[in-house]
Amino acid sequence: MLFSLDSGIEVMPAETIETDAGRTVCFTGHRESSVIPYMKDPVYSRITLRTVQLMLFRYIDMAVEYGYKSFISGLAVGTDLWAAKYILNKKRADSSIRLIGVMPYLRHAERFSSSYREMLEDVEKGADMLLTTNTDPTVVYGKSRTGENTSPDLYRVRNYFMVDHASAVISYFNEGSFKSGTYQTLNYAVRQGLKIRRFGLEDAYSVIDECGADIESIRRKLVFMENVFDLPY
Fold first, then answer.
1. Any domain includes 217
2. Over the stretch 150-159, which tens digit does the pLDDT of each residue have?
3. Range of the domain at 194
4. Cβ atoms of residues 173 and 198 within 8 Å
5. The domain that contains 192 carries what CATH number?
6. How many domains is the chain partitioned into structurally?
7. List of E strands, the chain
8. 185 close to 28: Cβ distance less than 8 angstroms
9. Tens digit of pLDDT for each residue in 123-145?
10. Which of 19, 89, 130, 233 is the most exposed place for a label (fewest CB within 10 A)?
11. β-strand 24-29 against 70-73: which pairing, if any?
């Protein structure tokens, strides 16, 4: 048996997943460090980050409204954990919503900040399933070096697994980030024919352009967004 190094919760092999892919969404997106402040002015750092998060949460709400019930998070810093934490809140009001956490390997969070490790622990404890795509407890990410058990494919395998068990992807993706794991995952999802619903910093900036740095105005605008899952493409 395997257990999380952060929460102590039992971790199951990924192949034990139980979900209806047709009603399942997975996430891919950038880390917090990718959120460049509006106008590149540090005074807007907080409102820019919060706008990105609120857009992500609105996309999740729209997915639920459309009929999706299961959500797969890769438990990574940034988009994945923001989404997972929000889904835990939604689960309190709707017990039919399921959260599946998929880690790429057991030691994946060793370099997380303390705040993200706390978030990860909460998410793992609240998830309906906690899985790993690599069950070797000693493996770490990296290129092979003498005396170390490493693999350069751990994140790609996790990302592709999530796509293979979903029918839609919600993504925070910034144009031009073509060397990122997010781009790799989106590209694979397109090839697999999944429904892609994504937004980026330019979308967040447009919201701030219209609403200013007033968080309540931003919330109200996002609430009245057209459901992106109703769109034909």
1. yes
2. 999 999 999 9
3. 20-227
4. yes
5. 3.40.50.450
6. 1
7. 2-3, 10-13, 24-29, 70-73, 98-103, 129-132, 140-141, 150-151, 168-172, 195-199
8. yes
9. 999 999 999 999 999 999 987 66
10. 233
11. parallel
